[in-house]
From TrEMBL:
InterPro entries: AGP_Transferase (IPR051678), Kinase-like_dom_sf (IPR011009). It comes from the Eukaryota. This is Aminoglycoside phosphotransferase domain-containing protein. Residues 458-483 have a biased composition (Acidic residues). It comes from Vanrija albida. Coiled coil: none annotated.
Amino acid sequence: MSAGPAGASSVLKSPAPQVDSVVSQIAESSSVLESFALSIRPSERSAHIQLPVFDPETKILNWKRGGFNAHTPLEFDSGHQVLLRVRIPRWDFTISDALSRLYSASDYATMKTAHRVAPSFIPDAWRMDAGSWPLADISFFVDHASGSRPAHLWGHNGEYDKPKIRTTIRDLASLYVSLSSQSFEGVGSLYPSATATPTANQPLQVYVGPMLSYEAHYRSSPPLGPFKTNREAKTAKIDCLLHLIENGKYKWFASQWVQPPRPAQPVLMYLTLLEVRALVQACEEMGRSGPTYIRHGDQNLGCILTHEDGSLSAIVDWEFAYTCPFEEAFATPTFLLGSYRDWRPNTLGIHQDMLVEEFESRGRHDLASVIKGCAKYSRLNQLLSESFHSPLNLDGLLGMEEAFTGTLVDPPATLDEWMARARLRHSDNERLKQLQRDWEAFSAAHPDLVGHSPAIANEEEEEEKEEKEEKEEKEEKDDDDELKEVKVNENKETAEEKGRDDDTD
């Protein structure tokens, strides 16, 4: 074991008071933490926690931190490592202590449960008893996983290492097959049972409770659910966003790339949600109750680790996972999709084709079928996620409708036309009318700030159309001039030939 807190004073000089406090408590509890670590690996003789060190010259704290958690390594005499995972408040938002405890508990319960059925790909986790040390309710130990982010999945300069990608897809398919073997009841997040402590012979008992979300929109209110059906869950999320827009609390900007930032068009956002809500309500599949399965709730490339040959090392960061029906739980992982929220086609990409082939080769046609028909869940989850900071364009809106209905009947040609039809369908919505009045007043008062509205978008489309028409006219004129020149030359050559013939005669 380490010497404990006596030699820890040198590490407690970070410029962030909240981080300072956490590091201090880890240092002061190091002997307790190391004793617990030895209890989960009784064959080890010693354990040493590696406290983070702040470098005053570089002003960098040597600590493995993600967006929501910090990880402190603890190494055994054998060289094996586990990580102490502690929730750390982010700088850009605050949540209550009670919610932090829920996130940590759900993270632990989900990892422990998923590890039981997929030990090759999900690290094991261990949690100390409440009160055993000051941060016990927002922390737990997790096995260290090697590997790096799979940059190879999206190739380089248009070149794909298909054998390497196929290796990753093969292991992802194995993970999905394993997770499909365990089902639950209800749509929500997993939590550890208050009365159960896992042992070698008795796995952790969990239950489905309120749904915790990654999206900042939902962190401002208590968790939603649990729900009996996916329709209830998605409708609740949509209603939450509608409520935020109605009350002027939705403060995302139209695009992080626009400088200066411009407010997003709330009327289009509101109409989009109303239309998608109607699609969800009409979806028979989403109204079914039945078994549910674990789905990772933050499927970015930072949550997947692979080895050099492309084989899957681990899927990490399960704090935003939730249970949902089969059709959504095993839909294509977001990190294999990129962002196609503004694209029209719902066709399969190279990664999805490989997944389908892999599942079918194993006789899992049910999972293959999910990949083929999961566009509505992929589009819906991207729309309701953190990326909902700007309205969809026309292709994205039509792609969403097509994913739900299968066909498009007389689709609108412009975004303005889409909005006019949507307004007509929701003409009795008084909140929409008030929102329209508020936006018009804001636009009149701040014309320099307003951007990305349908009118502006259509003006840009019209300009592009005019430029295209001018270019086509110029090309036609050039073709005509070239044709005239050819004809003149042909006539000249004919006249010269005729003159030569006359001379010969």
